[in-house]
Design goal:
This protein has 451 residues and is an alpha+beta fold. Helices cover 32% and strands 13% of the residues. The protein is built from twelve helices and 13 strands. The chain has helices spanning 22-40, 47-55, 75-78, 113-134, 145-153, 191-196, 230-249, 254-257, 289-297, 299-315, 317-333, 435-442; strands at residues 158-159, 200-202, 210-213, 219-225, 266-272, 281-282, 348-352, 373-380, 389-391, 396-398, 405-408, 416-417, 425-432. The strands form two sheets. Strands 1-3-4-11-8-13-7-5-6 form a nine-stranded mixed β-sheet. The protein has a four-stranded mixed β-sheet with strand order 2-10-9-12. Helix 7 (230-249) crosses helix 10. The longest helix is centred in the N-terminal third of the chain and has 22 residues, at 113-134. The protein starts with 21 loop residues before the first helix and ends in a 9-residue tail after the last helix.
């Protein structure tokens, strides 16, 4: 228009019309616009203006700009492809045009941005809550095809010499064989030590997925990575800072500072069932309960937990389904047990506080041997110089960047870490499931002694 506004910003398809005269169309359109402007300038109660708006039909043109001299709006004249028109007009189209003086004047007040922001946040929380309520089974949030394609299409497999028979599963199938004394308690102080011991270095950006493949062609572990988004990276940074702050203010016992996994403060929380127990129990956290509750309720830590569950479901859907089938029955049967996360199927978690978390060689033999433990590294360190994930059974040393996720059968694969460089900081967050829970459920919610 003469004002420079764009009233028809749709995608258009040109249709040839031999009767169309561009020069005539421009001339008549200009004359008509001048006439319309004159009428719009009249007072609202002017007889000419009233007659104009009463007789004009929606979608009609008062003048003839087409070869057939029709008074109706001809879509071919404007070259509009209605099938490709957007659902909404862009913000710079009609909504920003000069207001019609003959129509109701809109308010000139600016919107309350704070009120609008709060309203959007409330709507987002309501949608997420409804999504959780509508989930047919807890933990079953199948990844979309878009996510599957993104993480699996560019995945680079790592072939190994291990076979399924090599995993040290106990006779009952619910736990793993205990580690031998020479297979635990040691670690590489530097990357150079691992390379000198003929370990193969796996360079990893912490984003691209790398499944570990055994000789049988099965995926037995995954370097799952992390979402390639600024918001997720920010969530990891904030989660790290929160864990560091809570750890500095906590008073840890000697058993929490020195244990089989290493010499760093660590606290477990969730549901477990150990040897000799008659029923599953909630882990007792004592004086750290309030701190752990704050950590579990932290939205950034919850986001890490959600991603770990989604990655688990993405790479091992059948195993994830087994977790869901077992644990859903458990929480329904024993309501005194409580879930630590609303959107993660894992029943227990461990928070490994800093400032320099690195584990000694060990296996978590009481975890589900056929399942995966989710390990997520956090901190401010150079993953090429420290913090590597070591798998002695495979003779692999893997770069483990901050924010990345590794899914590994922690019960059957010995694993450890290399310390980060001096002056740097590293913490970790893990989720796991005790094999005793599966045994209890499969026995009809009884121990083997009571069968």
């Amino acid at each position: 228009t003469q004002s420079g506004k764009q009233f028809l910003p749709f995608q258009m398809t040109a249709i040839e019309n031999p009767n169309f005269d561009l020069a005539l169309a421009v001339k008549l359109a200009s004359e008509q616009e001048t006439t319309d402007d004159a009428i719009l300038a009249l007072p609202e109660n002017d007889p000419d203006a009233v007659e104009f708006w009463q007789t004009r039909e929606i979608g009609s043109l008062p003048g003839s700009v087409h070869g057939n001299h029709s008074d109706k709006l001809d879509l071919e004249f404007f070259h509009i492809n209605l099938s490709e028109a957007p659902d909404r007009m862009p913000a710079n189209s009609v909504a920003e045009a000069e207001p019609n003086p003959l129509k109701r004047k809109l308010s000139d007040d600016k919107p309350d941005t704070l009120k609008t922001r709060r309203k959007n946040q409330h709507a987002h929380r309501w949608r997420q809550k409804r999504s959780d309520q509508k989930a047919p089974e807890f933990g079953r949030h199948p990844p979309s095809l878009k996510v599957i394609d993104k993480f699996k299409k560019d995945a680079t497999p790592i072939k190994t010499d291990i076979t399924c028979e090599d995993f040290p599963v106990a006779g009952g199938g619910y736990t793993a064989m205990p580690s031998q004394s020479g297979d635990k308690g040691w670690f590489f102080a530097t990357l150079e030590e691992a390379l000198a011991a003929a370990y193969r270095l796996i360079m990893w950006d912490g984003k691209t997925s790398k499944p570990l493949i055994c000789k049988d062609g099965c995926i037995f572990a995954v370097l799952a990575g992390q979402p390639d988004s600024v918001s997720y990276a920010e969530a990891c940074r904030l989660a790290y800072e929160t864990i560091m702050e809570e750890g500095k203010a906590a008073d840890f016992s000697n058993a929490q500072l020195h244990h089989k996994r290493g010499d760093f403060p660590a606290v477990n929380i969730g549901v477990t069932m150990g040897l000799g127990a008659t029923y599953p129990t909630n882990l007792q956290t004592g004086k750290h309960n309030d701190m752990l509750q704050r950590l579990l309720a932290n939205p950034n830590i919850q986001r890490l937990a959600n991603f770990a569950d989604t990655a688990f479901n993405l790479w091992a859907p059948n195993v994830h389904k087994s977790y869901c089938d077992h644990l859903n029955k458990l929480f329904e049967r024993l309501p005194y047990l409580w879930r630590i996360f609303p959107r993660s199927i894992y029943p227990a978690a461990a928070v490994n506080f800093g400032p320099n978390v690195f584990t000694k060689a060990h296996r978590d033999c009481m975890n589900v041997p056929a399942g995966w433990c989710a390990i997520q590294a956090l901190g401010t360190f150079d993953p090429t110089k420290g913090g590597h994930f070591v798998l002695p059974d495979l003779h692999l040393v893997i770069e483990f960047p901050p924010g990345a996720l590794i899914l590994v059968p922690s019960a059957t694969l010995t694993h450890a870490n290399i310390p980060v460089q001096e002056g740097k900081r590293r913490v970790s967050f893990t989720q796991f499931c005790a094999g005793g829970l599966f045994c209890f459920i499969d026995n009809g919610f009884r121990t083997e002694v009571r069968l």
